[in-house]
Amino acid sequence: MNITKEQIDxxxxxxxxxxxxxxxxxxxxxxxxxxxxxxxxxxFRKGQVxxxxxKKQYGKAVLVDEVxxxxxxxxxxxxxxxxxxxxxxxxxxxxxxxxxxxxxxxFEFELGLAPAFEVKLKTKKAVxxxxxVADKKMVDEQVERIQKQYGKIIxxxxxxxxxxxxxxxxxxxxxxEHKTTLELDKVKSKKALDTLIGKKAGETVSLKTKGLFxxxxxxxxxxxxxxxxxxxxxxxxxxxxxxxxxxxxAELNQELFDKLFGxxxxxxxxxxxxxxxxxxxxxxEQQADQKLLNDITEKLITxxxxxxxxxxxxxxxxxxxxxxxxxxxxxxxxxxxxxxLRYQLIESKxxxxxxxxxxxxxxxxxxxxxxxxxxxxxxxxxxxxEELENIATRVMxxxxxxxxxxxxxxxxxxxxxxxxxxxxxxxxxxxxxFVKEVYG
Length: 440
Prior knowledge:
Blueprint: E1 2-9, E2 12-19, H1 21-38, H2 51-81, E3 86-92, E4 105-113, E5 127-133, H3 136-149, E6 152-155, E7 164-171, E8 176-183, H4 190-196, E9 204-208, H5 217-223, H6 227-232, E10 236-248, H7 254-261, H8 269-303, H9 310-320, H10 327-353, H11 360-377, H12 385-396, H13 399-421, E11 424-430, H14 431-439
Parallel strand pairs: 5-11
Antiparallel strand pairs: 1-2, 2-4, 3-4, 6-10, 7-8, 7-10, 9-10
Helix pairs in contact: 1-2, 3-8, 8-13, 9-10, 11-12
Protein name: Trigger factor
Pfam families: Trigger_N (PF05697)
Enzyme class: isomerase
């Protein structure tokens, strides 16, 4: 067998494979002899069927199978030994007049080659690294929510200012029928408040959705519809009152602090606010990190310039799926996947140049940390090492979980690298302003 490569350009090549009879005949003969031993053909005793009949019946299929196996094994071996960084898979070139009755066979495969390029982590323009802070307004609102949540509920006979009103929103035309709790301190519309004040359980009022709440996103939750639809909605809805309650705020005392954080962990309103601020900012850090990762990814894709073997990749996409695609479908699919492919190549180079990898032992420890945090959410704050080990072992036996955790751990490693080496500028911002700036 002889394998050679013809370089078309920097991104495309053709590999030629020449197979002679000596490469496959011995294996084909061995398989046919085994077939002869097992063959049951009427008129012949088992094992006594003439070899000529066996070759006539099975010879071509066995030959094709063995040549294809030779091709696959030796082509993969060649690509590995020659250290060819290929995109997609080798594509066999169509050959007119190919003859399986010949003794020697010549095959050609098109290759799409990965481009050579440099990745500069210090991008031309600095990427914003957000530091989200829990401001006084947010902390005070959280304290107020806690006091409400743990306070007493007092039943009322008619609606008064700042009550909580349980009821059902309804609009037949928009197919809305949703039970909810209407908190009057979140209602913005003075007309709506005037309409509700003084009403009793069993009564129905008509309210306008436009400008009903202080924050627009409250409307989607109240009506049980998605936020995009709620933002466009300007209709009248009926609200039938089921129950009216007043919440008497819980006192900020040691009993409440212990209930929230454990005995004597917090002992004053000042410490409570500090704890809320600290816990909130830890959660915000995850959102800020994800934003940073996304922004650096976009920046690297934009600033890292290289060509791809586009024609080859379109052709490969066209034939690699379960069902072949048309030229237009393959072109559309390539355009959708090109950005992702570019980042895969960029990320692969970053990992290689910075020796970043995920080892089994560290992945298992990462899994334990994830399991421990999950258990803490359900009040199991101090699990035994043996318990963590047993759960982690089960998790590591699930390939889908291993893949998901590996991706999370690698994202953490990339984030650490970017924070060390990328061109960043820090911006301190409140959570409210972060949401407005990032998500509009």
